[in-house]
Amino acid sequence: SDVCSSDLCVSCRKRQAKSAMIRVVRTQSALMRDDKKSMAGRGQYLCSEDCYNKLTSRSTKKIQKINGKKQ
Question: If you ran DSSP here, which 8-state letter would residue 19 be given?
Fold first, then answer.
């Protein structure tokens, strides 16, 4: 098992250490960048500024679907 935690970028699907990734959280139907990685809610991760700046509608919909899923 790995010592550091990793996650998958929701934009390009590249795996990287969570500590090096950009976290975004949906709040009140808006995506917010969580630089401190401490906001409440289910966060999604992006591997780079490039992926953050180029969020596709597919990635945005995926984040919203995961965070806004009603059961």
Answer: G
